[in-house]
Write a structure and sequence with these properties.
six-stranded mixed beta sheet, 34% strand, elongated, four-stranded antiparallel beta sheet, 182 residues, alpha+beta
């Protein structure tokens, strides 16, 4: 029972990313011309390339749900949440995320992802979104929060809840059949 939910880039993210990349290239060219290729432009270029590379490597690609876990795949990294550890899965409206402050994250360059601080609940939130619509909050039993977006959030929630029910039932059966419990 493996299901994959894809991310899609909205028009706002595309335009924001294009404008940010043009601004970065313009700043690099301006520094190069103003400082005649000095060390300031070299440092700025190096730091900018490193930050953009980290952003590109962290772009969310898809969410994969199998019989034991939820996997949030990015270009280079993957976050895994065990289904038996999931406490709640709920749809989040756009108004409730106005309290999120990006701390170590990308805010508009190819999406919204990274660590955000929620000033309303005073918690950290791991965000993996490419748009501020169709948001789903996954909270595990350790009170870690994961905010994801996908094209069909209602189907994502029902799939997670069904898979979680099956995983808990399999765990209950395994505990009943174990020789230590008899």
């Amino acid at each position: 029972m493996e299901q994959i939910f894809r991310y899609s880039f909205g028009r706002r993210i595309r335009w924001t990313s294009i404008v940010m990349l043009i601004a970065i290239v313009g700043a690099v060219v301006a520094l190069y011309l103003l400082y005649d290729g000095g060390y300031i432009s070299a440092w700025f270029l190096s730091v900018t390339v490193a930050v953009v590379a980290l952003c590109v490597l962290s772009i969310p690609r898809h969410i994969r749900i199998d019989e034991s876990s939820i996997e949030i795949h990015c270009v280079l990294e993957m976050t895994e949440i065990e289904l038996i550890d999931v406490a709640t899965v709920e749809r989040i409206e756009r108004q409730s995320i106005k309290w999120l402050l990006p701390v170590v994250s990308s805010f508009g360059l190819f999406g919204y992802y990274g660590y955000y601080f929620n000033f309303r609940t005073l918690d950290w939130v791991h965000v993996y979104a490419t748009e501020w619509a169709n948001l789903v909050m996954i909270t595990d039993k350790y009170e870690q929060q994961f905010l994801v977006s996908c094209d069909d959030p209602d189907r994502l929630i029902s799939t997670i809840e069904a898979a979680r029910g099956e995983a808990l039932e399999a765990l209950r059966k395994a505990r009943l059949e174990s020789p230590e419990m008899k």
